[in-house]
Design goal:
single chain; 19% strand; alpha+beta; 5-stranded antiparallel sheet; 12 strands; 7-stranded mixed beta barrel
Length: 416
């Protein structure tokens, strides 16, 4: 059973309503919730600096009464390659914690534009699958209409910020003074990100990856030394002679089941970033092992990555060649557990196809309105498969890719 639904829910927010917001109503209305954003002075939104704004949230895009309105906060752009696209993704930061849908109240939220994914649903499907097979701290996923300064921006996916916080990555958040032996072991939120050496971010490098420290945001020298040495030691054991040892091998450092769950979702979608590039999140709880998750950034997956030739083929291994997973797969016990977990989750994985059909049917009006605003079905050409001139053709391609992919993976696991 799905934990979350994108069907609009009536929310309860402890805020006092002010005057009704006025703004354009799209025709025909999509029936999705709507977020109306008004920046201070109508200022444009940039990538680096927040712009003050007020926000109003509606149960439906054509609703006359807001669930809550004129909530104060700020907004800026977000993303790397996605920020250079014409439809912009955003990061919201409210002055007070605000709840959306069935999610815990938070100050920071994310609006994914999904511009490069012409089906609009790859992130949704991947997060849903991760959620349903129990990958820790999988992001929430809800579709929403977005308006900025009374101008419709189209269909967005509303989701969590990847951060340490109750309701998100629920591990202890270290302060710079948390350096005693009984607390320094966690928590840490980490990301494999090949771009960090070019940025002023706290990170360290192992023999295989640069690893960004997402939390704590400003690690102390002791914390930096602890987590970098722990990960390096874990990797050293993984590539060492006795890595298969059940007690002193890689399982001493890596949480095996989360590794497999993350691998299965990433490999089913053949996500371009998941092999070794970026958005590969993992975390370490206090006195715990390295745990994969949360999942993130799947718009360039399932045949939507023309810059990666092997990613366009629904057959063949891809994420398995992630250096850590490839080494673990040399362990016959790990390989057997992958096969067993595939068998266990196969019925859930196969539900991705009917879920795709259900979601795209629900988005019928929203996607039509969205592509009136952003009509180029081939942009960006480095990502989007050419020759698909309509929403339906992109959805049909995604369905075919996933069907073939799941069948191919099932065949491999039966043969091993």
């Amino acid at each position: 059973m799905l934990k979350r639904y994108f069907i609009p829910l009536i929310l309860s927010v402890a805020l006092t309503a002010c005057q009704k917001s006025e703004g354009p109503i799209i025709e025909p209305p999509s029936g999705l919730p709507a977020l109306r954003i008004h920046t201070e002075g109508g200022n444009e939104i940039g990538r680096e600096d927040y712009v003050p704004a007020d926000f109003s949230f509606y149960a439906k895009d054509n609703a006359e009464e807001a669930i809550w309105e004129n909530v104060v906060g700020k907004i800026r752009g977000r993303g790397n390659s996605t920020w250079d696209m014409v439809k912009k993704p955003y990061k919201l930061k409210f002055d007070n914690e605000i709840d959306f849908f069935d999610m815990q109240a938070q100050k920071i939220w994310v609006l994914l534009a999904n511009y490069a994914d012409k089906t609009l649903v790859r992130n949704y499907l991947a997060y849903q699958l991760a959620d349903n097979i129990g990958l820790p701290f999988s992001p929430s996923y809800h579709f929403i209409e977005v308006y900025v300064n009374d101008k419709h921006q189209g269909n967005y996916m509303f989701t969590d910020q990847t951060e340490v916080n109750p309701g998100r990555v629920e591990i202890p958040e270290l302060s710079p003074s948390d350096n005693d032996p009984d607390v320094i072991t966690g928590g840490y939120l980490l990301e494999i990100d090949t771009r960090v050496p070019d940025k002023e971010k706290p990170y360290f490098e192992t023999e295989t990856f640069p690893i960004r420290i997402r939390s704590p945001k400003e690690p102390s020298t002791q914390q930096m030394n602890y987590i970098s040495e722990y990960v390096k030691e874990a990797e050293g054991v993984l590539f060492g002679e006795h890595f298969e040892d059940p007690e002193q091998g890689f399982r001493k450092y890596f949480d095996e089941e989360s590794m497999i769950r993350w691998f299965l979702v990433s490999e089913v979608f053949k996500n371009v970033d998941s092999k070794e590039f970026s958005s590969i999140f993992f975390h370490k709880n206090r006195d715990g092992k390295l745990v994969m998750g949360p999942l993130w950034d799947f718009d360039l997956s399932a045949g939507n990555a023309m810059h990666c030739e092997s990613c366009m083929d629904p057959k063949g291994w891809y994420v398995l060649h992630h250096p850590w997973f490839h080494r673990m797969y040399d362990d016959e016990g790990f390989k057997k557990k992958v096969r067993d977990m595939w068998k266990e989750y196969k019925p859930v994985i196969e539900q991705t196809i009917p879920s795709l059909d259900h979601i795209t049917a629900e988005l019928s009006t929203s996607q039509q309105n969205n592509f009136k605003l952003w009509p180029d079905f081939s942009d960006p050409n480095w990502a989007v498969k050419p020759g698909l001139p309509s929403y339906k053709s992109h959805v049909d391609f995604l369905r075919s890719f996933l069907q073939t992919r799941i069948e191919w993976m099932d065949e491999q696991f039966r043969e091993e």
